[in-house]
Amino acid sequence: MLSPAIVIIPRILTCGLVARVMQRKHVERVDFKFFLEHSLSELLRLSRINFSETFQVIVHLKVIQTYIESLLRYGLPAHYCTIMIKPEPKNLKKILHQLSSFYNSLESNNTNGSTKTNKNKLDKQINDSDEVIGGEYASVLEREVFDFVLFEILDPKRNSKDHS
Q1: How does the record describe its quaternary structure (predicted)?
Q2: CA 120 vs CA 64, 92, 100, 131: distances in Å
Q3: Binning pLDDT at 50, 70 and 90, where does residue 164 land?
Q4: Looking at beta carbons, which pairs linking 139-147 to residues 24 or more positions away fall under 8 Å?
Q5: What is the model's pLDDT at position 27?
Q6: What is the pLDDT of residue 110?
Q7: End-to-end C-alpha distance for the chain, whole angstroms
């Protein structure tokens, strides 16, 4: 019994075949570039549409964070006032001082000292950010501690290098 034989006949490579292969690769490259440009424009369009919604979600999470921090710091009932302030950098210390003096009654170890003593204490608290905080919560309290809950929402326009 004869086994079927496989016969391979080599073809001669012609310039027409090479030209067709090169043309097909060029067409694929052009199609891929068009696909990339279209994908990039679609991505930019979707990003612009969804940026405001994403920012709203971030602000909403900050509001929830403020509420939880208020509950943990001051306990129940949750009597609080949430305020969003967009201060100029030059007025930041003044605003912090005014907020600290307004919410001074929330201080847990509030002493009934004179107003001048409280003012000096507030000035010291705001100006001395290098003061070492010791004790059990030293690693937790790396930033300034105020009598109110304070969270920053970073403004992308103000903090970007393009909008200096």
Answers
A1: V-ATPase is a heteromultimeric enzyme composed of a peripheral catalytic V1 complex (components A to H) attached to an integral membrane V0 proton pore complex.
A2: 33, 18, 12, 15
A3: very low
A4: 146/96, 146/99, 146/100, 146/103, 147/100, 147/103, 147/104, 147/105, 147/106, 147/107
A5: 93
A6: 46
A7: 88
**What whole-number distance in Å separates Cα of residue 153 and Cα of residue 82?**
14
Map out the domains of the chain as residue ranges.
12-78, 83-107+115-164
Residues in the chain: 164
Q: What is the pLDDT of residues 77-99, one digit of tens each?
A: 655 677 777 788 888 889 888 88
Among the listed residues 124, 104, 106, the one whose alpha carbon sits nearest the alpha carbon of residue 114: 104
Please give the backbone phi and psi of residue 74, each rounded to the nearest 5 degrees, phi first. -110, -10
The rounded distance, in Å, linking the Cα atoms of 66 and 64 is: 5
Q: How far apart are CA 77 and CA 73, in angstroms?
A: 11
Could you tell me how far CA 158 lies from the centroid of its own chain?
13
How many CB atoms are closer than 10 A to CB 136? 7
CA atoms within 13 A on the CB side of 88: 2
> Does 63 score more than 80 pLDDT?
yes
Which amino acid is present at 43?
A: L
